[in-house]
Amino acid sequence: VFGLFQLWVLWDMLAGLRAHRELAFGAERTTVARCTVVGAAAGSASGLLGIGGGLVRVPLMHRICSMPLRSAIGTSCAVMIVTAVIGAAVKALTLPDLAVGDGPSHLGQMLKGIWILPGAIAGAAIGARLTSIFPLTSIRIIFALLVGAAAARMFWSAASLLT
Fold it and tell me: For the chain, is the Cβ count within 10 Å smaller at the N or the C terminus?
């Protein structure tokens, strides 16, 4: 199902290239109901598939909430910061107690997350800058290629499991 969703996102991004239009700022339809649908879909995909949710959140905010693509990307990054911190804390706090010598402690697990933080902040800053300077057509093409590659890999993995 997720692979089919990815193919829809690929088609939607490519159709947006052909339409030569972008949603205008201020035309968003970000009602509580629409945002709840996007959040529920992204949260479900994150929980079931172990993904960050941005791959679900960006296209749904763009289509369901009528957000411009750049705004959807930025909003998804902001949401990801909050959900990543909460998710890491909950995971670290709910790990089974580890006996001495069995591996890293809860504190050790939290430190691993902190070590990732500088790279995540730098990557977010670079990504935000690139999103603002690249033409929208380039952003759509890059996003479509990434989603297409992810869909192909998912279908390839599924096919190899069936054989």
Answer: C
CA dihedral 28, 33, 35, 39 (to 10 degrees): -160
Which residues, including other chains, have CB under 8 Å from residue 147's CB and lie 6 or more apart?
Answer: 6, 9, 10, 13, 55
Provide the angle, in degrees to the nearest 10, between the axes of the packed helices 69-94 and 136-162.
Answer: 50
Identify the residue whose tokens are 């369901």: 64
Q: What sign has the CA pseudo-torsion 65, 70, 76, 79?
A: negative
109 vs 6, more confident: 6
Estimate the crossing angle of helix 69-94 against helix 106-133, to 10 degrees. 180
The owner of tokens 């902001």 is 78
Kindly indicate the confidence band of residue 144, based on its pLDDT and cuts at 50, 70 and 90. confident
- Which pTM value belongs to this model? 0.68
Q: What are residue 155's phi and psi, to 5 degrees?
A: -70, -35
Residue 115 confidence (pLDDT) above 80 = no
